[in-house]
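Take a sample.
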Amino acid sequence: MISKVLAFDTATAHCAACLIIDDKIVVRVDPMAKGQAEHLMPMLEDVLVENNLTWADLDAIGVGTGPGNFTGIRISVSAARGLALGLGVPAIGVTHLEAQVHGLARPVVAQVAAPRDHVYIQTFADIISTAVLVPAASDVAKIAPPIIAAEDMIQHIALIARDRAPHVTERPAPYYVRAADAAPPRDAAPVILP
C-alpha cells in the first residue's frame, strides 16, 4: 500500500514540497526566483526529518512536470528520477494542468500562468486535449477555473502521484508546451587547428 509519498516542484518561482503520511498532509512552499537546484534537496531532507522519516521510509516520489520554467522543470524531474532509482520506488510525473483541476467534475478546462501575459490551456473530458498557449485575455482563458495557489498545486501533485503510484510504468518527463527561448547557434562550430 502506498502510504508515504514525497512530492516536489521547482517549475515556477518557488521550491514546493508535499509529504503524505497516511492521512496526514504536510506542505511547504519556499518562494524563490532562482537557486532551486541548491535549495531542493536540503528542503526535502528538512521535511522528512521534521516528520520523523528517512528517505528509506518513502513508498513513492511525485514530481511536477510543468509546464513552467525549462530549467526548473529539469531540476525537479532529474531529482525525482534519481531519488526513485536510488530508493527503488516509483517516480510519478504530474502536469500542472492536471493538478490545477484535480477533484473537479469533467469536462473542465485547466489553465496555468505562462510568460508574457499568456496562459497554458488544456481540456480534460473523455478525451484529454493537447495543451496550448493562448493570451490570458482570450475567451477560452475566461472559461477556465482560477489558477490555484502553489500550496494547493503541490498538494494536488502529491495526491495524484499517490493514486497513480501502484500503476505507473514510465519515468516522469518534462511537459513542455512551447519551444525553448534559446536555440542552438546557426554558425558552424569553429575548427580547432593542431
Summary: The helical segments are 36-50, 70-87, 96-100, 139-143, 150-164. The radius of gyration is 18 Å. The chain has a mean pLDDT of 92.
